[in-house]
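for the writeup, i need someone to sanity check this before i put it in the appendix. the sequnce is what the collaborator sent (i think, or maybe the updated version? ugh). structure was predicted straight from it, no edits. if anything looks off just tell me and ill rerun, i have time this weekend
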Amino acid sequence: MARRKAIGLESLTRRITRLDADSIDELYGLPPVYEPGAGEPGRLAPEEFVAVRCPYCGERLETRIDVTAGPLAYIEDCEVCCRPIEFGVECDALGALSAVRVRRLD
């Protein structure tokens, strides 16, 4: 009986001493999650920050673009003059951000 307990303890000790994300998830029975910066080389980030100029006031703005949504168009207000700016997002065939265009709505 004592030998059986020792084997189980050794197995658990080996699992605990590995501290990489996959081992911790396995130990606690957690599903794998996306962890920024921990992806494979060449893997695209799910979002990018892009600097653009407001077409109304000319102020430089930085906005977050969700590249997982693919090509899309949306409206966001300028942080300085509060006027609506239409953003057009274009992605290449691999899903990487290729262009962001901004334009006035009037």
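Residues 1-33 form one domain. The CA atoms of residues 53 and 60 lie 4 Å apart.
thx in advance!!
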